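Can you give me the bound-state structure? Components:
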Amino acid sequence: MKKNTAHMWMRLLMPVAVGALGWVVLASSDKAEPAGGWQPPALNAGGEAPYVHKINLYDAEGVVIDPKTSTDLYSPRETCGKCHDVDAISHGWHFNAGAPGFDGDGRVGEPWWWTDSRTQTQLPISARDWAGPYKPADVGLTPWQYALRFGAFTPGGGMGDALAESVDDPEARWRVSGKLTVDCLACHLGNRDYDPEAWAKAIKAQNFKWAATAAAPFARVKGEAKNLPDDYDPEFDLFGENQDLPVVEYVEHLFDPAKRIHLDIVARTPNESCYRCHSQQHVGVGATAHWLTDRDVHIARGMNCVDCHRHGLNHMVSRGGEHDPLLKTEPGLQTLTCDGCHGGGGGGRFASPKPKHAGIPPLHFEKMACTACHSGPMPGDAAVLTQTSMAHGLGLSSEHRTSATMPHIVSPLFVRDQFGKIAAHRGAWPAYWGRADDQGAITPLAVTEVEARVAPLLPKPKHEDEWQPLADDQIATVLEALGDGAVYVSAGEARRLDNGELVVVEGDAGVSPITWPMAHDVRPAAQSLGVKGCADCHAAGAPIDAMTAYAAGQPQAGVTVSTTPMHELRGDDALRTSLWNEAFRGRPLFKVIAWASVGVVVLIVATALMIGTRRLLLGKPEGRES
Amino acid sequence: MTTATANTTRAPLARIAKLDALCRVLLVVSFVALAVTGIGGYYALGAVDGYGLLVHMAAGGVFTVCLPVVVLTASSSALTRPNGALRTLVYWLTVLAALVALGTITLSMTKLFDTAGLHDLLTLHRWAGLALVALSILQLFLRVACRR
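Here's the bound-state model for the whole set.
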């Protein structure tokens, strides 16, 4: 009986117990849920004033650097990682090109350019999934070669770090060079003490793992890892006895007795840090001397790049475009796009002026990006040669540059962006050796093959890194040596050998210019296209249609430079463009006629109204009955 | 002598009548072109664009020139030879719609309006154009109905 009673109680209480347990679990899980909205990251000082970074430096093992005795490298990951989530940061835009599992490559940007003056090659490369540039693997570039060639204008990470050993590359010397890890100071040192030249030299010397220390203001690095033998193994050189091993020396007086150093770390990256990799200058015929040009109007008004190009801890920097994928997750960023801030997007931030665009038909804003009228150098008869940090090493004293320095990038180009709007672009025609298949599709030769098989057949250029067009017989010699299907692409066409004669390959695959939109420098309203009226663009010879662009890589020295007008680059109908522009010649007269017409009709309507009113009030005149 | 005077008076009138007839034909042709490119372009392609916009602009020019001539002659007959209240009302509403369609596009060529204002003008232009088409069809219907 007692057993039955107990059983009955158990049957009654069990659901209650289970329910209570469930409630406890749910309640505790509710507590574990983060509250909605923005949460400050851990170890965030939170104040408006910058946190004073009087900190210890740590080596890769997490041991404090002693400036007097330590010969170990400082590790940005260990040092900055004490307070900041370096793993989250290292997936940001500046580090994630080519990263596996990352499928948001965003809008097209500036590619890297593999250039070689001897073989007259300028080949666009990008690890991102963009139409136009070649993936590194497509042209036989390994992460090692990629990091070595382009690492100087990256803040580390990506190909030089997480992806370093993703490809089996017998040429790679990661064991000797170490990895090119993310260098936080490249952007976040606020007092201009960071040395990008030292960073670039370190990479050239294969001192990848020494690069961050070399560029920092608190240490010096001597020696070049490229002098170390291929079979050098740091694990067998515990005391660093190899004479060629780079050595580190810390600047003792910068540290306090507690081995701490004051670093002017800023969250708001100064413009100068951005300019290290994102500078530009215009050179050659038609270019305005640099000292006569103005900076971006936003910078001139005291703004910083990061005022608009913001990011959270994940360092996914807002690119400012109206199609920025970040807008999906952070709708508030809409107010930091051109239209969001200046237009009707609810922005009006930073006291931004709201343009009236009086008299400009709204159709313009559906078909054109803001940059078409407001960005880049003032357009003239021809697009000007443009040099950038990433392509021409601007900012490094060690780079010898002339206006002929490769690659030959031109701007502005008024072509359609990937979203169909006409926008200001930079661009360049690729030049490379490749093979064409039966359908005319062209695949570039691997850069190593070009170096091994093409370079020896051509003379050493008189001027390193400069464009010196190849003669037809030189091209023919190389194509013959490369065999069937070989082509040389330059000046917007591919040529192959046919019975000893150079002939143009049909089709435009692989020969078209590579273009990418540019937003800066932004010109003020007074210098925008259209400020002087419709004829700024709607006239025969107006830059937006008629400005020409020089296709780099003319096939033969002495040949007249062929150029392409903008409407042709866009693929616009030439007749329609011409008719449209001609139509605007009669616009002033049409305005007069239209006003006269409106006036006459208003007068007639008014007269009729008066007559009608009179008839209503006084009745119909005698003898006029209907 | 009397005949000679009458001939000299009739000659300019005949020329005016010819001009009026020509203007009426051109107005109808340009109006059809405007309606096809305007309504067709907007509803079929989402925007009046490309060659369609060029034709719209060219037809707009012809329409602008012919409209006052036709309104002048047609209104005088509308005022002097009334055709019934409905036809008169429809006629004047048609003139009003044409005036709004022409006026909005003329105003949009000035620098008086900002982007929002221009959007409003364009919307008004579209509605006026649509009303003009509807009223023209109604007027045609009434004219045919009255003849019967």
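A couple of observations. The mean pLDDT of chain B is 86. The helical segments of chain B are 2-45, 50-80, 85-108, 115-147.
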